[in-house]
Automatic annotation (TrEMBL):
Species this chain originates from: Streptomyces cremeus
Taxonomic path: Bacteria, Bacillati, Actinomycetota, Actinomycetes, Kitasatosporales
EC number, UniProt record: 1.1.1.-
Protein name: SDR family NAD(P)-dependent oxidoreductase
Enzymatic class: oxidoreductase
SUPFAM superfamilies tied to this protein: NAD(P)-binding Rossmann-fold domains
């Protein structure tokens, strides 16, 4: 039976790979994000996919998104986010106002966006639906406001699991380590840092979007109906080898 899947941040990287996987399985997939260009490019190549521009930190934008969505969502993947520190010019000693603005930006992008989206779609999640949050290994490391936001995401997900569990809805977090072939680091990942990230793994390689796709697909499958409130780390063993 075909399902309806919503993938936020579905125009590039992990979100795009996840969306393409579900579309290839015959599911109807809606991808969202702030940039229409990448979204439309991906959706144009697949008849099972539709692109809708949306800023998931904006309640009004989410209300407009609801008008574009079907009445039932079977899988919600909160993938939109990223380290917003990479989007601003570095400051040697930012003043307090700048520090607050930068900290809030990561919370908005990675925590508030997921919370607002899940709340907006709560009544549309079908019985037995799956919610999957895309977290990060940064949640367990000293990674500034980005890591704090991802740690909060994992904690907040416990509430989602508890609140939606009676309806048969599961809520889990997939927590990637370093994943190559994405826009995450913008142009700020240099060779020495890349090598260090790979050396920290037990597998001796960078992750790729397909690694995350497999984990998300499992958590959204019938085999995972009794798994909820969990964090699935997909990082090549990096957490245990640092």
């Amino acid at each position: 039976m075909s399902r309806t899947i919503l993938v936020t941040g579905g125009g590039t990287g992990i979100g795009r790979a996840v969306a393409e996987h579900f579309a290839a399985q015959g599911d109807t997939v809606v991808i969202t994000g702030r940039r229409p260009g990448p979204l439309n490019e991906v959706a144009a190549r697949n008849k099972k996919m539709r692109a809708v521009s949306c800023d998931h930190t904006d309640p009004e934008a989410l209300q407009r998104l609801l008008e574009e969505l079907p009445g039932r969502i079977d899988v919600l993947i909160n993938n939109a986010g990223g380290n917003t520190d990479f989007d601003r010019a570095s400051e040697a000693e930012p003043d307090l106002a700048s520090y607050a603005q930068a900290f809030r930006a990561n919370l908005e992008a990675n925590l508030i966006s997921a919370a607002l989206t899940t709340k907006a779609l709560e009544s549309r999640l079908s019985a037995g639906a799956a919610v999957v949050q895309i977290g990060s290994i940064a949640a367990d490391q000293a990674s500034g406001s980005y890591g704090a936001a991802k740690a909060a995401l994992a904690n907040w997900n416990l509430n989602v699991a508890a609140e939606l569990g009676p309806r048969g809805v599961t809520a889990n977090v997939v927590s990637p380590g370093y994943i190559a072939d994405t826009e995450f680091f913008r142009d700020r990942l240099f060779d020495d840092r890349r090598s260090a990230l790979i050396d920290a793994t037990a597998t001796g390689r960078a992750g790729v979007p397909a690694d995350i796709v497999g984990a998300v697909a499992f958590l959204a499958s019938p085999a995972a109906r009794h798994i909820t409130g969990q964090v699935l780390n997909v990082n090549g063993g990096a957490r245990t080898t640092r």
